[in-house]
Amino acid sequence: MKKQGYLLIVDDEKELVENLELLIEDSVNKISCAYDGKEALNLIEKESKNIDCILCDVNMPKMGGVELLKTIREKEIETPFIFYTGHGSDELMLEVVKYGVFDFLNKPNFDGLNAVIERAIDWKLNGMNEKDKAEFMDTDSYFHKITNSLKEL
Amino acid sequence: MLKDQFVNDIEVEFIEQAINFINEELEDLKRHQIFEFQKQIEEDREELSEFYYLSSLYTILIAQQDGYEAEVLKRNIMRGSYLQDIGLSQTDKKFLSVVLEELNEEEGELYKDHCRAGFNLANSFNSISENTKQIIYQSHECADGSGFPLGLSGIRNYRPALICHLGTELAREVLLKQTGFTAGVKSYLSSKDNVKKFPPSMIESLLDVARRKRK
Known about the structure:
The complex is a heterodimer.
Chain A: E1 6-10, H1 14-24, E2 30-34, H2 37-47, E3 53-57, H3 65-74, E4 81-85, H4 90-96, E5 103-106, H5 113-125, H6 128-137, H7 139-151
Parallel strand pairs in A: 1-2, 1-3, 3-4, 4-5
Chain B: H1 12-29, H2 35-42, H3 46-65, H4 71-82, H5 105-123, H6 130-138, H7 159-177, H8 181-189, H9 192-195, H10 200-211
């Protein structure tokens, strides 16, 4: 996939953020970093239309990842949100999915990091949420389109 | 052994690649401790092994068409699909062959508990990724909010879990009617209720798989 999009990384571990930047820099055009949820929220509120993907840790001071996600969803900001988690944070992960998580990555290996981020950014830039919503709105017309497609199989 | 009729109308290279992938991943999964719980559910019943195999295969076909091409992403999805009912090993196995609508309210709530039970069980194994755990947890969710355990919809859904749900429903349709893949797609999508469970872009991915017909 081509290099595209604007990624926000949110984590209080600066060394980890630097490592992630190095791993991802060939996949995205622009990377910003925030070191706690409150800092991230300020940035997202200013630049929500421009940010194409948010990569976020779960546990952070001042405002954790779950609260950040919940807050931006309440503001109807639908930017793809990717969580990374170490093993064992089960209650938090059961809680967080109510607010819409695009995908998950697993510490410490971050397997599939670039693939997941590229997919999320591509999704956002192609307006896939809006396309799905628009099609869903007119269900009779949409179902008619499906029926016609089935006849062609 | 998978019956030829369930796959023989799909483009040869596409289906062979998927079958090879599923077979390799399944061999690997069988070496994991978590598979002991899957064996408890299957109880050596061939029809159940066939069901989970076919669910995983159809899920991977849809996932690939939907853009999940990286091996690690496909692995997570395959595992989530194959192990989706693992929570039933922690509840009553009588729920294995039931239809939710036939259960009374109390039985229905007990049945739905298997999603969380499956997540908690998978969470006790370090080798199972968060992605796989979430697929196990959300494999009964739908895009229109009619699923469980959370009734998610729209952007709240975890897409790999929806793909698993679609692949599984298609496998169920094909096995019930003992038909081929294309006939199964036609039959399943002829119901408006089925169509609206999944996002339009995902239905399109399924149709694109069906369009990859064997020449």
